[in-house]
Amino acid sequence: MQPVRCLKLVLAYDGGRYAGWQSQQREDTIQDRLEGALREVTGEQRRTIASGRTDAGVHAWGQVVSARTTSTLACDVFLRALNANLPRDIRVVSVAEAVPSFHAIRDAVRKRYRYVLQDGPIQDVFARAYCWYVPGTLDESAMAQAASLMTGTRDFASFQSTGSPRTSTVRTVYELSVNRDPHHGASRIVIDVEANGFLYNMVRNIAGTLMYVGRGKHPFDWVCEVLDRRDRREAGPTAPPQGLFLVSVQYPELPSA
Fold first, then answer.
1. Which position among 55, 107, 119, 192 bears the catalytic label?
2. pLDDT tens-digit map of 77-136
3. SS3 for 48?
4. How many Å apart are CA 251 and CA 146, to the nearest integer?
């Protein structure tokens, strides 16, 4: 009997045609596709654990997954074999040995997300699946000022959507920046958020709130009032899913397996 190994997988995927990460009845999900590929490669039916349950339409560059197997295949062979059995909009970027106790959710210490908006008079038809189009011109300077007031350890209850309640709504945001993307011209605005954890739809709700500031609907320091109220109704709208990307997940330094 072979011992059970724990593998740390890093995935990139286009979430546009999937119902999110988590397995669901009668829905096509990233988890089901990955577990199907693992079954083809190892002959085993096992559950995987992702660092976060990305919603329908949300993308990832660095989703981390913990997977267990008794297969003796080397990590580089695993990488090639999994990608050979996955659709082309899901790629395993890396496979590494992990300690037996590694857990993709519980062991995560930081996560980084990116939200992308496009403003301007005409929507970019080639980017519509990867950003939120907001007609007109957004004031990214005002958005950046507002973002700077939301960093640190704060109660983000106003930015939590219903559906996944947590015991605490306090989170530490290490970085929240707003910048024009020079690689795509002046019409793309990128919001980067890094924190020790996120509430349900927190990034999308932050993006919707900053959009209100960018449109001039509220001054930049309005976000302080939103935070103080601890009421989801006080914040901006939930931004659509296609502009959201899970960029990376950080873990403490763990001993090698």
1. 55
2. 999 999 999 999 999 999 999 999 999 999 999 999 999 999 999 999 999 999 999 999
3. coil
4. 29
Single-letter residue type at 203 = V
Backbone dihedral angles phi then psi of residue 68, each to the nearest 5 degrees: -115, 145
Structural domain for 215, as ranges: 110-248
Answer yes or no: do 147 and 234 share one domain. yes
Whether residues 235 and 115 share a domain: the answer is yes
pLDDT at 253: 76
Q: Name the token pair of 241.
A: 């899913």
Which of 56, 77, 107 terminates a domain? The answer is 107
Query: 66 has which bridge partners?
Result: 8, 49
What pTM value is reported for the model?
Answer: 0.94
Does the active-site annotation cover 231? Answer: no
CB neighbours (10 Å) of residue 36? 14
DSSP 8-state class, residue 239? P
**What is the per-residue pLDDT across 7-26, written as a single tens digit (0 to 9) for each?**
999 999 999 999 999 999 99
What is the tally of structural domains in the chain? 2
Q: Are 131 and 205 in a shared domain?
A: yes
Ramachandran region, residue 19 (left: φ > 0; alpha: ψ -120 to 50; beta: rest): alpha
